[in-house]
């Protein structure tokens, strides 16, 4: 007699798996020789996990948790300590993505939609919270203060000339540091005008006049929320079904890149909103109201004023509208607004600069080169700092969605694909494809509405295991980056700060390609190909939807296989970061199941970019034994175990170099039992610190051990 568990029993077991994943994620993980450490979660994590799981289980039904039961093998393997490549990478915070995938699958299987009115206020509340975090952690950086400067000049001087504004330091009300103007070509009479288009500055002007930078930031959060709602309405208007449209709207609201740009003063969010308006209202103008036609025309007319590169999007969208055979009145209104926008833009530049072509404000040097595509195109998609699909892999479902759209309506599929390809080619051909000092996927954000419609078309077919896993990863990184915007608002760092902070026993910076600093990631093309293949398989598997536990097993195994392949391919070294994540905390040592009250950290020379032989003359600037280690403020003791070569020579000194504003400092080392030993302080505000050996005699490094010091002074060692 074959016994099968009831749906409620299987669902209850699945919710226990979700809870276990969340608790393991909250506890964190760290590497150790021969295994790893699993952190003991705090009591607050237990309470939050219980409440979150109970709420979702109540909303979706107890039986809805059965899909997550198929993920049980991952925490089981972690607790056993199975030496499987890639398993270390699926420890700690990344397990949150798996738990969210289980919740998404449960909500999808329940077929209970949230109220339609909820999306806009909920998205605005979430995006406003992100805006507050941005204002407190980051402030306006990159291009943002320059848009604010033009708005300030319009408000104070009623012009866009900026030389006096920069000279008087008017930007200090929202940007404390020195700020040089962004310009390449002076005006007719030698004036300094911003090379950035004036449209965004005019758009935020009322909010800036009411409350300065903060009000402008919240206004941008409102535009982001309106974009999520407009995507939902566009999907409904395209006939993709209420459930798929609702899912697409929430996906856009909670996933990168939109949530990371909520509150930022960049052109991409209003440009994406204009694209969404055009895709929604341009579908059929045969019997459209005059207000809809004017709104559509205004959206198309606004795009080139936000940035000249958006003119390509405006043209493609105008062709999309016209091929829908609108009535003559609508055609006349649209063409009149488009002509007025183009003429106004030309006259504006002629008045300021003496030429009609807005592209000339960037100077004589070429800005676009197809030779950049081999680096720019994969970088836009897979770079660990700026790639769209690294942070929001859910958008890979646009590919099967576009195929589905092409069978139903070639015209709709053509405009969505055309917008995406045109933007990818244009941005990938620009040397600044990453966008500067900004969160990921800046230049692909304007076509997120087109991608989201493809995702909605994929959802319409059904929500499967691959879809759940892709959505879980996207929402996890979206919420994490929204809560800690300092980790995503970066430029040319080489490795992604978000993945340095949110990894477990194996850092994801090892597994993901990097295209910003090519010399630091020689495996980038192989890694990009591997992840492109994995995402392609996930997209193909979404064609057979279903949320059975067997599908979760296959999805989890696919992720583990991809992470394992990347781990084996990568030659990147994390220099001790994987080992210090639980330093000083209570942890379970696996395998072995021994409980540690205050975990130490141990790593080997194989984790370093040099060694094991330390020769001071080969490292005149110091040899790093730990790089970018995130250490809480406190006192630590480091042991560098070694094999003697020249015992008569003195030990090296230890140099502590903070990534933050704190100064570098050196402390002496002593030789104790064959190890070079020293104590040092990690100070508040240091940020991640790098530990380097300097001077002294040569020796062979056998291992590095770091532990929290319980003494105010250690063997007389200097601070």
Question: Which properties best describe this structure?
Answer:
disordered C terminus, 719 residues, 4-stranded antiparallel beta sheet, Jelly Rolls, alpha+beta, 14 strands, 6-stranded antiparallel beta sheet
Structure explained in plain terms:
The chain has 719 residues and is α+β, with helices and mostly antiparallel strands. The chain has 3 domains: 7-112 and 464-569, no CATH class; 118-454, no CATH class; 604-708, Jelly Rolls (Sandwich), CATH 2.60.120. The chain has helices at 7-27, 43-60, 73-80, 95-110, 119-137, 144-156, 163-167, 199-237, 242-254, 258-261, 268-281, 290-306, 311-322, 328-353, 373-382, 388-391, 398-408, 410-428, 448-461, 465-483, 497-501, 524-541, 549-569, and strands spanning 29-32, 35-39, 587-590, 594-596, 601-603, 613-614, 623-629, 634-644, 653-658, 665-667, 670-672, 675-682, 689-694, 699-708. A hairpin with a 3-residue loop joins strand 3 and strand 4 (594-596). Helix 18 (410-428) packs across helix 19 and helix 22 (524-541) packs antiparallel against helix 23. It is globular, with a radius of gyration of 27 Å.
